[in-house]
């Protein structure tokens, strides 16, 4: 069975952020991920990981001005310098946290973008990812890109798994892989098992959540048991990030995860 990582941006929000590490460990998780570490000093996060025997599985590059609605810089023409500074900043944190994976969010297209604008964003995306993948490779890390559904993030450039694959091929670096979020894939295109099979050779991380509410995976329209079994039989040895907003108390909603060794201590 795949190892489950608690996503601390969405789970255990009953606690202040730094206290979520201990809560996740107490609930039986051995790995954690979250969107952004940058509100904290790296040593504060490192201390929490060490104190609770946790592995840092993943976090994201700086996304631009999140409060103003930005959702990543990787495809934004004219922001290349800021993107590259973000890569260096993320790599510093990754070293301190011993984190092997970094996710670069693609960013938004302008509303009603023409085909030419879209092509320009894609070209910037490929250039920026080429640079970032090489920097990650030199640092012994893997860079990830994630298709995100356009209902939750309207105008997000990267929505389909096939486009992610095309971008990965255009970049052509072994250090760039796919963050396959089953929640987004179900909303955008469904057919989870066949899509996973066809993308598996480029998958570097997996996430899940119930659809459509993004609650626990045992709530909603997807029967995740067979999907996780297929992930196993394909030979996946990475982590599956639990990137969902619990419907109620986080620990009360963990019944589904017992089969994966997540058992409250
Ligand atoms: O699926 C998501 O929302 C995340 O994995 C992410 O990185 C951007 O919000
Ligand atoms: Mg995700």
TrEMBL record:
Organism whose genome encodes this protein: Halomonas litopenaei
Domain Xylose isomerase-like TIM barrel: 22-259
A GO MF label: isomerase activity
Organism placement in taxonomy: Bacteria, Pseudomonadati, Pseudomonadota, Gammaproteobacteria, Oceanospirillales
NCBIfam families according to UniProt: OxoTetrIsom (NF043033)
Record flagged with keyword NADP: no
UniProt name for this protein: Hydroxypyruvate isomerase
InterPro entries: HPT_OtnI_isomerases (IPR053398), HyI-like (IPR026040), Sugar_Epim/Isomerase (IPR050417), Xyl_isomerase-like_sf (IPR036237), Xyl_isomerase-like_TIM-brl (IPR013022)
Pfam family, one: AP_endonuc_2
Family as reported in the entry's similarity comment: Belongs to the hyi family.
Record's keyword terms, sorted: Isomerase
């Amino acid at each position: 069975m795949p190892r489950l990582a608690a996503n601390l941006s969405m789970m255990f929000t009953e606690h202040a952020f730094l206290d979520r590490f201990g809560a996740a460990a107490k609930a039986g998780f051995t790995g954690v991920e979250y969107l952004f570490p940058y509100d904290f000093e790296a040593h504060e996060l490192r201390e929490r990981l060490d104190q609770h025997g946790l592995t840092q599985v993943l976090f994201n590059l700086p996304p631009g001005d999140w409060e103003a609605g930005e959702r990543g810089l990787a495809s934004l023409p004219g922001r290349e310098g800021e993107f590259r500074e973000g890569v260096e900043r993320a790599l510093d944190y990754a070293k301190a946290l011993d984190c092997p994976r970094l996710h670069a969010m693609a960013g938004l297209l302008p509303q009603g973008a023409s085909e030419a604008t879209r092509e320009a964003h894609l070209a910037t995306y490929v250039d920026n990812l080429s640079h970032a993948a090489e920097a990650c490779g030199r640092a012994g890390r893997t860079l990830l890109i994630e298709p995100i559904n356009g209902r939750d993030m309207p105008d997000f450039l990267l929505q389909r798994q096939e486009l992610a694959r095309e971008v990965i091929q255009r970049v052509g670096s072994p250090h760039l892989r796919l963050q396959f979020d089953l929640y987004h894939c179900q909303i955008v295109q469904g057919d989870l098992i066949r899509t996973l099979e066809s993308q598996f050779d480029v998958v570097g991380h997996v996430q899940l959540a119930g659809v459509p509410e993004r609650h626990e995976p045992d709530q909603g329209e997807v029967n995740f048991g067979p999907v996780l079994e297929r992930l196993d039989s394909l030979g996946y040895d990475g982590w599956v990030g639990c990137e969902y907003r619990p419907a109620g108390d986080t620990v009360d909603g963990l019944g589904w995860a017992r089969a994966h060794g997540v058992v409250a201590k």
